[in-house]
Amino acid sequence: MTDNLHQLRCFGCGARIAGADALPDFRCAACGDLFEVEYPGWSQRRGPDRPNSGALKWLWRERKSSSEALDQSGVWRFRELLPILDSFGNAVTLREGNTPLYHLHRASKALGIDQLFAKHQGMNPSGSFKDTGMTSAMSVARERGFEWVACASTGNTSAAMAAYAARAGLRSLVLIPDGKIAWGKLSQAMDYGAVTCQLKADFDGCLTLLTQIVKEAPIYLLNSVNPYRLEGQKTPAFEIAEAFDWDVPDHLIVPGGNLGNSSALGKGFREMRELGLVARMPRISVIQAAGANPLVRSFAASHGAELEPVEAHTRATAIRIGNPASWRKAARVIQDTGGWCLDVTEAEIAISKAELGAEGLGCEPASAVTLAGLKKLRAEGKIRSNETVVLVLTGHTLKDADYTIDFHRGTLLTEEESAGKEAEINALRRNAVVVDASAAAVLSAMRSSAG
Ligand code: F0G
Fold first, then answer.
1. Cβ atoms 151, 162 nearer than 8 A
2. 293 lines ligand 1 (CB under 6 A)
3. Segment (H or E) for 168
4. Choice from 121, 130, 173 to test ligand 1 binding pocket (greatest atom count within 8 A of CB)
5. Strand partners, 284
6. Contact at 8 Å (CB) between 115 and 388?
7. Which helix (H) or strand (E) holds 131?
8. Cα–ligand 1 centroid distance for 129 (angstroms)
């Protein structure tokens, strides 16, 4: 008896292969495109492998009160929808997922959208959404007997990979762009025991080099080109649908970097609809930083048919990516769901991040593009006040404390970047003040901050 029901289908030419036959770089031998996991048994309406939607909803809710490790994971709780392992007993879990969905009180008032929520994926064990994809792909690596796993990363993937590799007893190799990742993330890779190489290259260069390396040595590639990553990363879609009692929000807004996450969430909602768990899909919109916006340009030039890589620059280092691997998948998600793809400036990101912070929901800069993007979509009349919106916050605020401190000290943005937005920025800044160690001085500091 195997728990495994999957095969791989090429996103470009439709070729189908067995999971174990994938090449080390996860590219199609025929056309070079990426693969997607598919479950052939699901399409036979009355077949024994097609999940029963009513039974699953009940089972998944029951598992919430279970003390089994797999049931306590917000990814493996939904394991019937990711049967990628020969045995679920091989799963490597840190109890990822089950992240909170917060109502955004202030932003909802400011934007006139009553039903505005944030799904905070930064509340995962290593502090980012990557854990949901790492638990699934690392489990495959362990089941297939690899000793080494590797990724190129802007920081979060490496933190998650190093943690899960350590739990699985595997060695891990991390390639990161020198000087362009947040310290919090680098410290995690070190602490979890990865071999960490800082390269004089950007993220795209790191991934290209790693693609060569995995062809030369038996190392399992754990970037989101690995289709098993996306299987775990689709599960927040299930959590969101469950939280809305198996309805879905009208809009889901996601940051875009290498574009694995938007692809995965789209797949999750699509599969739920195909299996009759939900009746429709949300519009899924992808937001990029203006200095790292290849998908936005692609939509402007060819409605997502062609993509020209760009040289990427943004302080939201997590999404500093100019040649996103999963762009075709993400473009399809936006087109199929009727979402949008747009970009936001450095000042807009910084302001939105501080606004989320002021709600008690810190996040990292890359996550704040979602609120900045929502403001634009709302101003353009694309989102109505009676619609339900979920922003996906991808990383924890402590990942990049330097960014936050620089913002509050007023040293983050250049004059040019903040031009016209000085008042908005200054109203949000809460710099620490140095005062005498006396009650009078502290009370005076409180008074001068009032309002
Ligand atoms: N937000 C955060 C906090 C991220 O770390 C990333 C990607 C994204 C958004 C974008 O997601 O790539 O799936 O479109 N970080 C990767 C990394 C690239 O290496 O940690 P994406």
1. no
2. no
3. helix 156-168
4. 130
5. 252
6. yes
7. helix 130-143
8. 8
Closest CA to 266 of 307, 236, 243, 228: 236
d(CA 13, CA 33): 8
- Predicted structure pTM score: 0.97
pLDDT per residue as tens digits for the range 122-172 = 999 999 999 999 999 999 999 999 999 999 999 999 999 999 999 999 999
**How many Cβ atoms sit within 10 Å of the Cβ of residue 150?**
26
pLDDT tens column, 179-221: 888 999 999 999 999 999 999 999 999 999 999 999 999 999 9
Please state the atom number of ligand 1 nearest to the C-alpha of residue 366. 1
Q: Is 394 in the pocket of ligand 1 (CB under 6 A)?
A: yes
Residue with tokens 């403001």: 375
- Rounded CA-CA distance 333/369 in Å is 19
How far is the centre of ligand 1, averaged over its atoms, from the C-alpha of 288 (Å)?
11
Q: Which two tokens stand for residue 334?
A: 């936006």
Rounded distance, CA 263 to CA 20, Å? Answer: 22
Cβ proximity of 116 and 393 under 8 Å: no
17-52 tens-digit pLDDT: 999 999 999 999 999 999 999 999 998 877 888 889
As a whole number of angstroms, the distance between CA 42 and CA 435 comes to: 65
